[in-house]
């Protein structure tokens, strides 16, 4: 039966003492009338206190879990004493490896008989003392008036600061205002003043002042505003329930962001989410848990939704949230859904109807010939941590697969290779259906705890995945190493390889080009090399063939319509994404825009909103793509990469992004012997033309590369400079104006580069120069210290190595010591970081050092430019 609670009801099931966290709520608690019997109390403790499990511990602690509240009335002194001793005895009897049971604030307050003391010290005590003071409100209210007045008289004056500074820390010194509030002796104006008097320096760090200080204010809105304004953080799960009770629906956004914060570890986030799930059971919580399905606490969110279907169906949900509810609804029968339908909210009705329609689609006959033939040699059914019924229907030839058939597909997905059944399904299934199914498999695996032994749910799902699978998995792969999940990220790369579409390979290529985790970047690069070799290409050739168009048309543009006005978006030659207004004849007019303008009165507001959002999304994707391609083509110039005329005409000149990005780049036309015979640029028709705008023909057997400044005479460089100026073209990287350098005359046949800086170089300047010119960092050893950067040169089959002392550690550059550049030398072959070690003579003794005369002039110039940058 659908819940009869209000759609926004959070359904909080808490004790009266916890309700006291909300000062705007009047709380009255009756005295305990049950006689105290220690034997009965012990039996109750054994029955209601659930023993902690180590797997649930965070930092060695677990919250107290009971099947019912220990107290809902004011306990007698005997009963309080018994429970205090009970928890002390449990703590004393626990093994060192056992998790420590953390009591909630309200229970600590009750067991103490109320907070009477005003003085506390230290940061940790502050995070406990404030909520305990508020939870004491029912106990303090029950005291005789004389005792209440005595407590009030003992408190420090409101003018005495709660936070004082001692060396390096802001200490919390007393709970006076909170005890006043618990006694009903603090006005709203006084409460605001107390918080405004907290020193700004204490508020600047998110850990000195607990957000529960805001509970002193009168309304949920004020409490949330104070915490948001000062950017305070909920740091421990013990603060979660007090915050939820005191702020209600107003505080859910902040709580959600705290749980899903990148900086919060998965165990801690789970403790936060479980704290919410334990007390919140109403329809108003459904959006909260639906939003958490794509986070590190998906397991808790899934469990909550599975146990609260009647509440979720009563909630007001956006279409996106309602869509996320479908896996939970699929675990019900069609009959159950039909029975629920009359009572569901308007926002969930369409979702229920859609799931019913899925269930009513006819099943693929079990005796279908191709199925019977392919569903052979299946492995035994694998262990799965989620209900297969949650998965969306897999539609094949107009029929959905039955539960048995879905089970067989899952068996096939658990193999390391592309099973014949998976191949048959992939070839016959609707692309959107199998793509959605693949996403659901890996999402369900994540939500159920991402058991490593079941990682085939990720890799195997790739065989059925398509564009949505790639779009949802790629950002997770980039994040996982930062969450100590490198191996999961590597599995993700395997999943993308199994998808095998251009979009999937583009995703791997993007990770190989730019990701902040070196090991993942290296593995992605290796994957691209392997895929290229399997297809008979070099990695560069493969990347040319899979390059995304970024949503642009064949001429490198895209039109966005506001109804009355239309805008043309494009990639400018400097690499920036821009747009211009189109006139009545569809000609660009007016100034160049970096973003689409706000709609005016003549525009269609909905179309304008959609266009602005679409442009922003396209710009984000294109900006990342352009950054990678700019670096790739600059390296092509430095490394002297060359294209066949056919490849250049097929994949470079007409490409929607490259044709505009590279419009100002000058190309080198070479004959079959590699001699430069002409130079050219790409015009608007994707044709190679010279300085006179005449077409260029590449000699038979010839090649096309990117001109380096060293290839050009001053006269030719000047001529091209005039052409680019006339057409208002620029280049995304320095080409005609690129500084050039030559080896010092003293170099001769010496192995170490001559003329390197003799003094120490600031770490930031050293790393900045290496980064600007495309050098790679060597491995980090011994507590994360590295002392090598290197520049592989595949086109010349050699590697440049720079060795510096005393090395740097994997941390902030601002904290690194200045470095001494010890030597820069050349070794034969394209080497990896593992081959170079620390870079000193003992580490590279098995490698062949080469004289600098073996280094092409362009490479030598770039190396010297790097060194010059360090000393500049």
Automatic annotation (TrEMBL):
Residue ranges of domain DUF4132 in the record: 590-775
Biased composition (Basic and acidic residues): 601-610
Disordered: annotated span: 590-610
Pfam families linked: DUF4132 (PF13569)
Name this protein carries in UniProt: DUF4132 domain-containing protein
Lineage of the species this protein comes from: Bacteria, Bacillati, Actinomycetota, Actinomycetes, Propionibacteriales
């Amino acid at each position: 039966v659908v819940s009869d609670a209000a759609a926004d009801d959070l359904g909080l099931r808490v004790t009266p003492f916890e309700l006291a966290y909300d000062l705007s709520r009047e709380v009255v608690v009756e005295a305990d009338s049950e006689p105290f019997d220690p034997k009965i109390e012990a039996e109750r403790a054994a029955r209601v206190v659930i023993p902690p499990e180590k797997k649930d511990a965070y930092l060695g602690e677990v919250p107290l879990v009971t099947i019912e509240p220990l107290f809902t009335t004011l306990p007698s002194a005997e009963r309080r004493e018994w429970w205090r001793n009970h928890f002390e005895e449990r703590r004393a009897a626990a093994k060192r490896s056992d998790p420590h049971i953390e009591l909630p604030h309200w229970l600590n307050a009750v067991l103490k008989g109320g907070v009477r003391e005003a003085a506390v010290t230290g940061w940790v005590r502050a995070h406990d003392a404030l909520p305990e003071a508020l939870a004491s409100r029912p106990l303090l209210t029950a005291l005789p008036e004389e005792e209440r007045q005595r407590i009030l008289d003992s408190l420090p004056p409101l003018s005495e600061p709660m936070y004082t500074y001692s060396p390096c820390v802001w200490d919390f010194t007393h709970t006076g205002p909170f005890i006043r509030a618990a006694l009903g002796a603090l006005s709203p104006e006084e409460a605001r003043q107390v918080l405004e008097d907290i020193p700004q320096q204490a508020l600047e760090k998110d850990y000195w002042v607990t957000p529960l200080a805001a509970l002193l204010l009168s309304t949920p809105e004020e409490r949330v505003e104070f915490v948001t304004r000062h950017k305070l953080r909920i740091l421990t799960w013990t603060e979660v329930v007090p915050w939820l009770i005191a702020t209600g629906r107003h505080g859910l956004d902040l709580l959600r962001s705290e749980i899903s914060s990148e900086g919060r570890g998965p165990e801690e986030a789970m403790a936060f989410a479980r704290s919410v799930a334990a007390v919140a059971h109403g329809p108003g919580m459904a959006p909260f848990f639906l939003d958490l399905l794509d986070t590190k606490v998906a397991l808790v969110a899934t469990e909550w939704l599975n146990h609260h279907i009647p509440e979720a169906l009563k909630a007001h949900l956006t279409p996106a949230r309602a869509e996320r509810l479908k896996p939970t609804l699929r675990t019900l029968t069609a009959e159950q859904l039909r029975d629920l339908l009359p009572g569901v909210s308007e926002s969930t009705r369409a979702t229920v109807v859609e799931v019913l329609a899925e269930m009513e689609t006819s099943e693929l006959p079990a005796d279908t010939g191709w199925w019977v033939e392919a569903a052979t040699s299946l492995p035994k059914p694998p262990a799965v941590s989620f209900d297969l019924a949650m998965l969306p229907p897999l539609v094949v030839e107009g029929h959905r697969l039955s539960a048995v058939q879905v089970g067989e597909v899952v068996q096939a997905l658990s193999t390391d290779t592309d099973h014949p059944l998976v191949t048959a399904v992939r070839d016959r299934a609707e692309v959107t259906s199998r793509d959605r199914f693949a996403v659901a498999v890996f999402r369900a695996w994540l939500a159920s705890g991402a058991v490593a032994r079941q990682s085939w749910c990720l890799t195997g799902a790739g065989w059925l995945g398509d564009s949505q699978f790639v779009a949802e998995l790629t950002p997770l792969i980039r994040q996982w190493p930062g969450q100590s999940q490198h191996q999961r990220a590597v599995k993700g790369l395997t999943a993308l390889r199994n998808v095998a579409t251009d979009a999937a390979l583009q995703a791997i290529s993007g990770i190989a080009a730019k990701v902040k985790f070196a090991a993942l970047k290296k593995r992605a690069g290796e994957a691209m090399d392997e895929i290229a070799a399997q297809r008979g290409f070099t990695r560069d050739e493969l990347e040319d063939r899979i390059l995304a168009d970024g949503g642009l048309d064949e001429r490198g543009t895209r039109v966005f319509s506001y109804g009355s006005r239309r805008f043309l978006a494009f990639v400018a030659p400097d690499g920036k994404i821009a747009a211009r207004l189109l006139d009545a004849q569809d000609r660009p007019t007016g100034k160049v825009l970096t973003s689409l303008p706000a709609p005016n009165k003549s525009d269609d507001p909905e179309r304008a909103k959609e266009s602005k959002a679409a442009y922003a999304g396209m710009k984000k994707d294109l900006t990342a793509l352009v950054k990678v391609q700019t670096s790739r083509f600059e390296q092509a110039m430095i490394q002297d990469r060359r294209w066949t005329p056919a490849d250049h005409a097929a994949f470079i000149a007409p490409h929607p992004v490259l044709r505009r990005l590279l419009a100002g780049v000058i190309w080198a036309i070479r004959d079959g012997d590699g001699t430069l015979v002409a130079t050219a640029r790409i015009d608007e028709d994707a044709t190679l033309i010279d300085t006179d705008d005449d077409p260029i023909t590449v000699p038979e057997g010839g090649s096309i590369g990117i001109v380096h400044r060293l290839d050009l005479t001053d006269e030719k460089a000047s001529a091209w400079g005039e052409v680019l100026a006339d057409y208002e073209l620029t280049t995304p990287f320095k080409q005609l104006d690129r500084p050039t350098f030559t080896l010092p005359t003293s170099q001769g046949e010496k192995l170490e580069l001559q003329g390197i800086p003799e003094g120490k170089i600031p770490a930031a300047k050293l790393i900045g120069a290496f980064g600007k010119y495309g050098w790679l960092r060597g491995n980090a050893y011994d507590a994360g210290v590295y002392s090598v950067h290197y520049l592989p040169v595949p086109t010349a089959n050699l590697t440049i190595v720079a060795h510096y002392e005393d090395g740097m550690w994997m941390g902030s550059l601002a904290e690194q010591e200045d470095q001494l550049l010890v030597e820069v030398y050349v070794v034969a072959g394209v080497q990896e970081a593992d081959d170079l070690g620390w870079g000193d003579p003992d580490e590279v003794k098995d490698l062949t050092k080469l004289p600098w005369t073996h280094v092409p002039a362009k490479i030598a110039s770039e190396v010297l430019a790097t060194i010059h940058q360090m000393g500049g």
